[in-house]
Design a protein that fits this description.
This protein is α/β, with parallel strands linked by helices. Helix content is about 45%, strand content about 10%.
Length: about 1250
């Protein structure tokens, strides 16, 4: 590469290309090349300025000054050419002597190059040189200024420091400002002033970037950092009044200019969008800087922020923008200028103390114009025809609407500062109550009557229309459509009255089969432990293939259709004693259709090692693969890969699996016959025989073989109709388990008429199961379609979503969560939902669907307009205006484009780190932003969502919640994921009366409640679940808890004490009469007073004497006790007579000094499970536990051999007593560190 022979303008590009070649081709790994690349870019930008700038009309600029400028440019180019020649020669020498390479020559040339540039900065491009250039020269031409800014931006983009990234973003704002001014036809002195300012900012940014290369101490770097932030402030929030005046003059000229061609604006609308994009951060920064903000001003600023977000999305949406008239398009350009004028007129002091009158009027006018534009683009619900209303649980949807209308009709206007048209809403409410009663009367007749069905549909459509119109009024939209809605509802009421009178003779018609089928569930909730009937021959064949044959690594595949029981059979094989004794290691993972190498490796490692999954999740694939290889090396292993759809999945992990020629095997299950090696044979799983189907049906319905005499014939008939497919048998059992015995004949007829001998018959069975659900359960089941296939869904999160969506019916004397739990049990009883993880207190902790049921739910949800899943960019395959939108796996969709198509969406669920835009539809009720991370601050846009009931965000370093959360007056669930520090709540939190769940998923963080003037604050009487952080020395816990009387689940973490401990050091919880689950962390040397209703208690790092545990032992209802990470200090736990009368589960984990445990036969009379993990000094488990008749499981990990021996002795005592149920699990001592319990949502 002959740099010396190149043209002077291209020497920089050639130098950068050569440095890039060195970095990629030669095995040099030093940082000098990267630093040199950055410095060459800085010099390139300076040279661009020197060659393009022109003299001003200033007599002080002499001819020799012009020559000096040109000489400096030539010297920069000569420096690059000369030093690159030396570097080229060094590299050539290296390549010639490649057999004995020596880096010294190259490193020496790099050092000389860097020192030469550093010296050049000190002598030729210093601050005085820059000041001289700015005084005597300018670029002036907009294109030249933009080119120079672009060059500086390329330089800043290579800087690793955060400050330079911020500087780059602000320079991009200036670039967009210049482009906007040119687009809007700004000319003359206003444009010149802006260009000069942009030029000065860019060259100063370049000068600051050059300082980071010079060897400076911390003090110099701190000074540079302050200069960078000062420059950033001058760019977008100018502190200099003259600069601010320049900005406002340019914006005023841009607003008034009529010289710009509207076609140019349409073609270059992205320039306006970019400008507004760069305005948005300045608003958020102003809001974040305000610690005390008046609510009206805060709301106005939030509305401005939301309005600019909306316009940005609109400008980037080609079809929507194209539909606007020319006047509207021009108005958007004017609004961009007005918004900037308002923003540049604001300051933190103004926002906190009140806006100046002129600014206040300008902001008021701007918000009106923004609302007008939005109304023109998303004209609210002018008709019903454009909406795809859901057809699931229509009466339940009507009830949810009526409840909301009753709240609005009775609300105090002074509370929410929203002027509702109450008289009209009252009339609509009365008419809808009448129509609701009419729908109940015709529910059993409409399916056979076309006229009634049509009237039903019209009533539901108008009810949904009314909901949208009224909810739009709540967020500030027009009232005019309410009159039309009220009129249509009145007309329907008249029609319904006339129709009812004409059809009264049919009111005694027979009820639907669904009603007669409903009986009380006979089964408790099962764990995912499926019954396997028959197939013993299949099991023997597969075990033989796994344990015999070639010593080389080989494959065994189980192939069959969905629902045939492939996974259940494979699990039975893997748990067979012959397999467990033959293989040293057994690992498994679920592949499914969506997978990654990282997820497969993590699953396999987690199934082998007992380490925390979080440890593996944070590792890269390059680290996981060798770790798995090392664990498997020299071991005979069996790897079970479940639900494989393509060979690519195997190819991702095969290099991590060693072949030691010792008989290791890979077991696959798949719906597809895959050829893993040329001679591999697939084992095709057969269907059940009629006899096996009958036995399976009997076990699933009655828990044992054999039908009652009256059901033998019809039961055998139903089993035969299942065609040997286990899933069909299980689903049919779910129907029969909830069907009166005298109605089994009707089930048999339904199966006969609906299931046909083709590929769809299983789906038809699912359809039958779905149709037999009550209306309340149908939306709960379809909601699973929002989650990934094979995903284990935390049950609490699922309940919170169901409740926020309005699916859970209010039941007298029951918590919403308890009703939701009954719903889930019903779905499990019907074999539609599987419990994948149990709680220690009983009930489901996580659940999932069989993939075939999930597939059915996805199709049914789409068919009934229940939920729209985004699969790709601009996905419009669903209804025109869906109520619920979910993005499950389309990473980086830019989904804001789709959201503009769905302005009235009520639920938005994201599961990946998508680019949101960031604009949110104002009628949202449910918002889960998935893995999108917000650093230090919450997104201010969410606080305009007045209807929001569920809010889940992933955050890092958020220290406080803004007072604007008070706008979310209907919020029920607020979930913070990943926030590793305590979070201070505002005083306004006490005004959100609907709050039910305040939770953080990070186990050592919680919410800090404000305690100032607590006596005057209202209570949160619906709060059910809370992550609380408290200072035990402040004596404020009791005051806070009296405001939260109905807490059922509480996790309490200690914050740093601000004062010395006073009083007796007791935290009192006995005022919480409904508290069932309590976790206490890090309250060293603090005692507690517990409520008598407590059922579950977890203590971590509290370090109390063992004598204090007697207080816990007296709790009459305690069922679960977990003692983790030294909650007590001392070597001996001596139990007293009669303690823990109802305890079922006891966990002891990481008790470092604990040695001796003394108990008597009357302790733990109901204990079912004992877990002992990493109690390294513990000597033995008390032998008296051998007398406990209810004991089912003892699990020991990381303990002395004497502990394992004592457990085996207890097992033998249980066997001697006739109890063979007790299972023991003993893992190798010192095998792993205790994993942190996963904190579910």
């Amino acid at each position: 590469m002959e740099i010396s022979c190149s043209s002077s303008r291209s020497c920089f590009e050639l130098a950068l290309d050569y440095l890039g070649w060195i970095n990629k081709t030669l095995p040099y790994r030093g940082s000098a090349i990267r630093e040199l690349e950055k410095e060459v870019r800085v010099l390139q930008s300076f040279d661009l300025y020197l060659t393009k700038c022109r003299r001003r009309n200033d007599e002080t600029c002499l001819e020799q000054d012009e020559e000096e400028k040109d000489v400096t440019s030539s010297r920069i180019q000569d420096l690059i050419i000369r030093r690159m020649e030396g570097l080229e020669f060094a590299c050539s020498e290296y390549l010639i002597h490649s057999r004995s390479p020596d880096w010294a020559h190259i490193e020496g040339e790099l050092t000389i190059f860097l020192e030469a540039i550093e010296l050049f900065f000190e002598t030729d491009i210093n601050e005085s040189c820059i000041n001289f250039l700015l005084d005597c020269y300018w670029l002036r031409d907009p294109e030249l200024v933009i080119d120079f800014i672009d060059s500086v931006l390329k330089t800043l983009a290579k800087m690793n420091r955060f400050h330079f990234k911020c500087l780059g973003k602000k320079l991009m704002f200036l670039k967009s400002f210049v482009l906007l001014a040119v687009l809007r036809g700004v000319k003359g002195q206003q444009l010149i002033d802006l260009l000069i300012h942009a030029e000065v900012m860019a060259i100063n940014a370049l000068l600051l970037s050059s300082t980071c290369y010079c060897p400076t101490d911390n003090e110099v770097w701190d000074q540079t950092t302050r200069q960078i932030y000062r420059l950033i402030d001058e760019m977008i929030n100018p502190s200099d009044p003259q600069v601010r005046e320049t900005y406002i003059h340019v914006l005023t000229a841009a607003k008034l200019s009529r010289s710009s061609d509207i076609s140019d604006l349409v073609k270059n609308r992205h320039l306006i969008a970019d400008f507004m994009d760069h305005l948005v951060p300045s608003i958020t920064q102003l809001l974040k800087s305000c610690t005390i903000t008046l609510a009206p001003i805060m709301n106005q600023m939030l509305e401005l922020l939301e309005g600019l977000r909306f316009l940005t999305v609109l400008l980037r949406h080609q079809e929507k923008f194209k539909e606007l008239c020319l006047e509207m398009k021009n108005l958007i350009g004017v609004v961009a200028c007005d918004a900037a004028v308002v923003i540049f007129s604001l300051s933190v002091n103004q926002i906190q103390k009140g806006l100046a009158k002129e600014t206040d009027l300008a902001l008021f006018h701007l918000l009106k114009v923004l609302k007008f534009i939005r109304a023109e683009v998303t004209d609210p619900v002018t008709s019903v025809s454009g909406f795809g209303f859901p057809r699931t649980n229509e009466l339940g949807s009507m009830d949810f609407l009526l409840e909301n209308l009753k709240e609005l009709e009775s609300c105090n206007e002074a509370d929410d500062s929203i002027a509702f048209p109450k008289d009209q809403i009252r009339t609509v409410l009365e008419d809808l109550v009448f129509l609701r009663s009419f729908l109940v009367k015709i529910a059993d007749q409409r399916n056979g009557n076309g006229k009634l069905q049509a009237l039903w549909s019209r009533i539901m459509e108008v009810a949904h229309w009314a909901e949208f119109v009224i909810d739009s009024i709540v967020v500030g939209d027009k009232h005019e459509y309410l009159r039309r809605v009220a009129r249509d509802i009145q007309l329907l009421r008249t029609e319904a009255r006339e129709t009812y009178h004409s059809t009264r003779h049919d009111c005694g018609a027979q009820r639907t089969n669904q009603k007669s089928f409903r009986i009380e569930s006979r089964r408790s909730i099962p764990v995912l432990n499926e019954v396997l009937v028959g197939l013993d021959d299949e099991i023997k064949t597969i075990i033989h293939s796994l344990t015999r044959g070639s010593k080389l690594l080989d494959f065994v595949s189980i192939v069959g259709m969905a629902g045939l029981g492939k996974t259940i059979l494979a699990n039975r094989v893997c748990n067979d004693p012959l397999i467990l004794s033959h293989f040293h290691i057994l690992a498994r993972c679920t592949v499914s259709q969506v997978y990654s190498m990282h997820s497969l490796l993590v699953q396999l490692l987690c199934s082998i090692s007992s380490r925390s999954p979080d440890e593996y999740l944070e590792m890269d694939e390059s680290d996981l693969a060798p770790k798995l290889f090392k664990l498997l090396k020299r071991n005979r292993y069996l790897i079970f890969l479940d639900d494989v759809w393509e060979i690519k999945a195997w190819n991702l992990v095969k290099s991590s699996l060693p072949d030691d020629a010792n008989g290791s095997r890979i077991l696959f299950t798949s719906r597809i016959q895959l050829q893993f090696k040329p001679d591999s044979m697939a084992h095709h799983l057969r269907h059940l025989t009629d006899e096996e189907s009958c036995k399976l049906l009997q076990k699933k319905v009655f828990g044992k073989e054999g039908f009652p005499p009256t059901l033998g014939k019809v039961g055998s008939q139903i089993a035969k109709l299942c065609r040997g497919l286990p899933l069909t048998v299980v689903l049919t059992a779910g129907i029969l388990a909830n069907t009166a015995e005298d109605c089994w004949e009707e089930v048999a007829k339904s199966l006969t008429s609906s299931i046909v001998l083709n590929d769809e018959y299983c789906m038809m069975t699912l359809e039958l199961s779905y149709n037999h659900l009550s209306d309340d359960l149908k939306p709960c089941l379809l909601y699973f379609s929002a989650f990934q296939e094979d995903e284990n869904i935390p049950v609490r999160r699922l309940f919170w979503l169901w409740i926020s969506e309005g699916f859970v019916r209010k039941t007298e004397g029951m918590r919403f969560e308890d009703v939701a739990d009954d719903y889930l049990k019903d779905l499990v009883d019907r074999s539609l939902v599987m419990v994948s993880e149990q709680r220690s207190m009983g009930g489901a902790k996580a659940c999932r669907l069989h993939d075939l049921v999930h597939e059915f739910c996805v199709k049914k949800a789409k068919e009934e307009n229940f939920l729209h899943v985004l699969h790709s960019r601009n996905d419009h395959t669903g209804p025109s205006n869906p109520l619920r939108v979910c993005d499950r796996n389309a990473r980086n969709l830019m989904i804001w484009e789709s959201l503009l198509e769905f302005p009235y969406v009520r639920s938005l669920l994201l599961f990946n780190e998508d680019d949101l835009g960031f604009w949110l539809p104002k009628l949202l009720r449910v918002l889960d932003l998935g893995e999108l991370v917000f650093h230090a601050y919450l997104p201010m846009e969410v606080f305009l969502l007045a209807h929001l009931r569920y809010l889940a965000l992933r955050t890092r370093g958020v220290k406080f919640i803004p007072a604007a959360i008070a706008n979310l007056s209907r919020l029920q669930t607020f979930l913070l994921r990943g926030n590793g520090i305590h979070c201070l709540l505002p005083k306004a939190i006490w005004n959100i009366k609907t709050l039910r769940h305040l939770w953080t998923t990070y186990p050592y963080a919680g919410f800090i409640f404000p305690v100032e003037n607590l006596e005057e604050c209202p209570g949160l009487f619906h709060l059910d679940t809370l992550s609380l952080a408290i200072d035990p020395s402040s004596q404020s816990l009791q005051k806070i808890l009296t405001k939260l009387p109905n807490i059922c689940r509480l996790r309490c973490t200690k914050t740093a004490s601000r004062e010395k401990c006073t009083g007796d050091g007791i935290l009192v919880f006995d005022c919480l009469s409904r508290l069932e689950s309590l976790t206490l962390r890090c309250f060293e040397s603090t005692r507690f007073k517990f409520p008598l209703n407590l059922k579950k208690l977890t203590l971590k790092q509290n370090e109390q004497p063992w004598s204090e545990i007697s207080t816990i032992g007296k709790l009459p209802k305690l069922e679960v006790l977990k003692l983790v990470d030294d909650p007590f200090f001392g070597k001996e736990w001596e139990m007293k007579q009669g303690e823990f009368p109802k305890l079922r589960v006891l966990k002891l984990s990481n008790l470092r000094d604990f040695r001796s445990w003394a108990a008597s036969s009357d302790n733990f009379p109901r204990l079912e499970k004992l877990i002992v993990h990493n109690c390294w000094m513990m000597e033995e488990v008390p032998s008296c536990l051998g007398e406990c008749p209810t004991l089912e499981m003892i699990e020991v990990r990381g303990c002395l051999e004497s502990v394992a021996s004592s457990v085996k002795q207890i097992q033998q005592e249980q066997i001697d007593m006739g109890n063979e149920v007790l299972k023991i699990l003993i893992e190798d001592p010192w095998s792993s560190s205790e994993e942190e319990e996963e904190e579910e949502e």
